[in-house]
Structures are given as C-alpha cells and as structure tokens.
Write a structure and sequence with these properties.
single chain; four-stranded parallel β-sheet; alpha/beta; about 400 residues
C-alpha cells in the first residue's frame, strides 16, 4: 500500500509534471521500464554486474561497540564497500542497461556530492557511452576529488553557476539539456526524485539492499526483519532501497534522517519533510521548501548530497501517513556521529551516512532490538570537511 500506483502517485505525491518536449521521453520510459526490469535477460546481466563488478552482496556488520553504547543490536549495512564507494552504483548500472536497451547513445546526470556523478561516469566508461555530468559550482569546489575521478573516467563535468550552485541547480541544467536532446539522450537521475517512473525505478534498482538485509538477518538472527531500519534521506534512494521490502511489514519501524543544517529554524537547513509544503519540483508533486509565493527556498547542509529542497514522493508519503518517523540531524550532530563511528569501529562514513548515525543518540532502544542502519557511502570525499572541523573543535 506504500508503493506507487498505476498513475505514478504515492498517496498525494508523485506524478509527472514535465515540459511538453519531454512528454514522449518520459512516456516511453514509463511504458518500457517494468518490462525491461522484469525480463530475464536484464535480471541476469544486472545481477552478474552487481556481483562481479560492484562486489555485492554488501556485508551486514554487527557493530559491537556501537551496540554496547546504544544498548541494542546495531547492524551496519555496508554500502560504503561497493565499487565507487556508495549505494549509487546499484542504480546507475540498472539505468544504463535500460538506456542501452532503449537505443540511447548519450548519458547525462546531475550530482551533488559527486558520488552519483562518479557512479554514472563509471558505468559510461564500462559501456562505452558519452557522459555529461552537471554539478553546481559550489559542489565542484567542495567535492574536488570526485570531479577529478569523473574526468579521469572520461565524463565531461559542467559546473553550474545559477542559484546557489548546488544540487537543485545541477538538476535544472540536466533537465534543460534533456529538453534539447530528447531523441538520443538518456537522463540517469540519481535519486528517488523526478517525474514518474523515476522514483519507482530508482527504488526498485536500489531494493537489492533490503533484499540482502532479509537474507542476511535470517542467517544472523534467525528472522527476516529488523525492529528498526535507519537511513538518511536527501532525495532518498539509499533509504528507499533499505526499506523497500519492509514497507508493508508493520513490525519494522522506519526512521529517516534529513539534514537539519544549522538548525531547522535557522534559515540554513535542508529539512524538507519538517519544513516543506506540497509543491512541484523537478517533475513531481512532493514536499518542497518554498516561500509564501511558492518560490523554492535555498537549502543548506554541510553534506553536499543532502542539500536538496525537496524529497522523493515515496518518502513524502511515508512521513505524511506516519509510516516513517523523520528526524532532522544538524551539522554538528552529524560530524560528531562521523567521528564516533570512526573511533569506535574504524569506519569513516560519508557525511550523508553520518546523518543516519546521528539519530542513534535520540532513540530509546531495548537491549533485544535489532537495528539495521545503512552506511550509504564512505567518507573519502568528505575528509577535507572532517579535518577542518577537527581543527575548529
């Protein structure tokens, strides 16, 4: 009941609000994606690449020291161990296989933290396809290592100088490009956002995460489901993948964390679910940070991957129907959580994942609770921010 309906809606959220010129592209995609994703040839190719190229299944690691500290059984789903260092690769492999089957020859993408850009550039190199990545100029500066990786992989990185030069603006530019090249270009969206069928398609491709969690828990705990699932949300793809196969299982509590920035009421935040009102952003009706006139407000987060002024329609619906509990984790809480995981477990998480870890101190667990928290990416790309923070504190 929490999945998308045939019109592309999750409750009140979703749909496809797109410029006329893209109508055919999106319509074609909508008519073909399930057919392809459910075909045997796709499944075989996708599964083989996930196994032999990405390195899946990603481990489910019982974090003994975190468990002791927070008085529960805390398992970490290690998406940071995938090839390219995050969950993003699961989705880009699936979408490029689809693009190839649709006869597209040119790939475009948007990226914030650069992880989706790197994952897209990676699969384009693998499949020998032209790749253009749009990235806000602010993000190009703060995620320089990822820009260098994309260029080494053969992608053209286009710095975007409109707005506050971050993820929203990169997405705007990617959509403009798509409008100019609808026939040969496929747009790989990096999260569960955008017009239908993207939110559903990305969630399905990422659902390998929850599929593995079920099998791994059965092996480790003798049961297929946890008591709690915890993940960070920007657009929401690692979270969608983590919860996908548990959405209708009411025994499982879903906890989502968004970027509180410098505090929800500071005017420097990306806590869309807390602050947003229903509106339309990048082709979908969802919760959007906007002013009285419906103008998009600029989001802010220390994490380049979470400062998006909207949220995927799946998550907007989960929060509205109270299926998920949503916390805003501010910059300092996320940084603290990142240092804690590094010291306790020797794992340096991405700043995005640190927002998920930041909620542990706000929860009241029972000692027998089984908690699965997704570490969506590794912290290499955020080292400058971490080091700077350490000096300041």
């Amino acid at each position: 009941m929490y999945q998308v309906n045939e019109n592309g809606y999750y409750g009140d959220f979703g749909g496809a609000y797109i410029p006329e010129i893209l109508h055919q592209c999106v319509e074609n995609l909508k008519n073909i994606y399930l057919q392809v994703l459910e075909s045997d040839s796709f499944k075989q190719e996708f599964d083989a690449l996930l196994r032999d190229y990405v390195g899946r299944p990603s481990p489910l690691y019982l974090s003994k020291r975190l468990s002791e500290k927070y008085n529960a059984k805390i398992y970490l789903k290690r998406e940071d161990l995938n090839h390219t260092g995050a969950h993003k690769i699961n989705n880009t492999i699936g979408q490029i296989l689809l693009a190839r089957r649709m006869g597209k020859t040119r790939i475009i993408a948007e990226t914030g933290a650069g992880q989706h850009g790197v994952a897209t550039a990676t699969v384009c190199a693998l499949m020998n396809m032209e790749c253009v990545v749009y990235m806000g100029k602010t993000d190009v500066e703060r995620q320089h290592a990822n820009v260098q990786k994309m260029e080494m992989l053969g992608a053209t990185v286009v710095p975007v100088t409109s707005g506050n030069m971050t993820l929203k603006d990169a997405t705007n530019e990617a959509i403009r490009d798509w409008c100019c090249h609808p026939s040969d270009t496929y747009y790989i969206i990096g999260s569960t956002v955008g017009p239908h069928p993207y939110p559903d398609m990305v969630a399905r491709l990422q659902s390998v995460i929850s599929e593995e969690i079920k099998k791994q828990l059965l092996e480790k705990e003798g049961r297929e489901y946890p008591d709690y699932l915890i993940a960070c949300v920007g657009g929401g793809s690692n979270a969608a993948g983590t919860i996908y196969h548990f959405l209708n299982d009411e025994r499982v509590k879903i906890v989502l964390t968004e970027a509180g920035g410098k505090g929800i009421h500071s005017g420097m935040s990306a806590a869309t679910i807390q602050l947003g009102k229903t509106g339309i952003l990048h082709g979908a009706r969802t919760l959007v940070m906007q002013d009285e006139d419906g103008q998009i407000e600029e989001p802010y987060s220390i994490s380049a991957g979470l400062d998006y002024p909207g949220i995927g329609p799946l998550h907007a619906n989960l929060s509205t129907t109270k299926r998920a509990t949503v916390f805003a984790i501010d910059d300092d809480e996320a940084l603290q959580a990142a240092f804690e995981l590094t010291r306790l477990e020797g794992i340096i998480p991405a700043l995005e994942s640190a927002h998920a870890l930041g909620v542990l101190s706000k929860m009241k667990f029972k000692p027998e609770d089984v908690v699965v928290l997704t570490v969506s990416g590794r912290g290499d790309k955020d080292l400058d921010t971490y080091i700077q923070h350490k000096i300041n504190h």
